[in-house]
Design a protein that fits this description.
Elements (H helix, E strand, L loop, with lengths): L6 H4 L15 H4 L19 E2 L11 H11 L11 H11 L6 E4 L2 H12 L5 E6 L4 H9 L2 E6 L7 H6 L5 E7 L11 H8 L7 E5 L24 E6 L12 E5 L1 H8 L9 H12 L1 H24 L4 E2 L5 E4 L5 H10 L2 E2 L1 E3 L3 E5 L3 H17 L5
Helix pairs in contact: 3-10, 4-10, 5-6, 11-13
The protein binds pyridoxal-5'-phosphate (PLP).
The site of pyridoxal-5'-phosphate has 13 residues, from helix 5.
Amino acid sequence: MSVNASASQLTNDPSPRAPAAVRMRPSIATIQPYKPGKPAGAATGKRIAALASNEMPFAPSPAVREAIAQAAAGLNRYPDPHATALRERIATANGVDVDRVAVGAGSMILLQQAVLSTTGEGDELLYAWPSFEGYPLLASLAGARAVGVPLIDARHDLPAMADAISDRTRCILVCNPNNPTGTLLGRDEIAAFLARVPSDRLVILDEAYREFVDEPGYRDALTLLDEFPNVAVTRTFSKAYGLAGLRIGYCIAAPDVIATIRRSHIPFNVTALAQAGAMAALDGAGELHERLAELSAGRRRLAAHARALGYPVVDGYGNFVWLALGERAPQISALLEAEGVISRALPPFGTRISVGTPEDVDHAMQALEQVASAAEPAG
Ligand SMILES: Cc1ncc(COP(=O)(O)O)c(C=O)c1O
């Protein structure tokens, strides 16, 4: 037989096969693929502000890039499966013991591990809605029923969420500040909610945007962990630290909760590059303050301008501004895109615009002005 024999010659099958209809788990068949924010796209000659994905507009610092480059020299070896040095560094930065820290390839992976370790077919995953678009995906992956409790005035309705806890609820996700509305829950209202949650149900406080909270006197949810050992806090290097492409996040919780979350951990999911880059980012946390101050100034400027133009702006704390446009969100987002500003429409709720560089903010402000004169924005 010739070495160039085709697959059909090898199997004696004269005709190419029809594509197989592989049987899927029913819950997987229901998954609506996660829609990432539109990237900047091909160069069109006109300025584009890519403000759909809550990314930081700054490139990683030279120190972070240098650490990643050095780690690249050892890529023939598997990374430390326990990410010990990074976990120790995160533990120190947050004043907790290292057995209270888990890391993952993005906080999304940690959320997935937490859900898969607690919630199965027929169980319920509870969260507010609208919130992070990854949550319904997690429910489908687990084969669980997604229970979304409507926000009130763009904020979590924690009493209604407590009422919605059933015998089948296994895990509760609380996004704080909430993506996409930016609204913030205070420590005391979270504590009052946690007091109503049975202690054998896992509550995840998803704090992907924690570092952007510049509310004076804001008390961190980490201080709740001793009182409520069924709580885990997830955070990420993708947002404030500007390392979305590196895929690295962490979780802080009681040691047995960390052990539960790690049950569905796939070995080696955090690369050596991610471990090295995240450590360097923590070493350079001093620079972070300046960047966060610049981002906050941009958020306030954009929100104030949009409000003055008549847009229904929600006061929020992430690196984004939420316009509660309702059903008009896709139309307004399309008009903004025609002005070179790529935003995220989440109908029937609203449009989210990320805060970019000061030039991006200027661009978004001008685009909002153009759109306001073309369409009545009040929602
Ligand atoms: C609220 C929230 N949680 C989690 C994530 C996932 O972040 P990552 O997996 O990049 O850490 C995101 C990303 O946008 C988010 O907005």
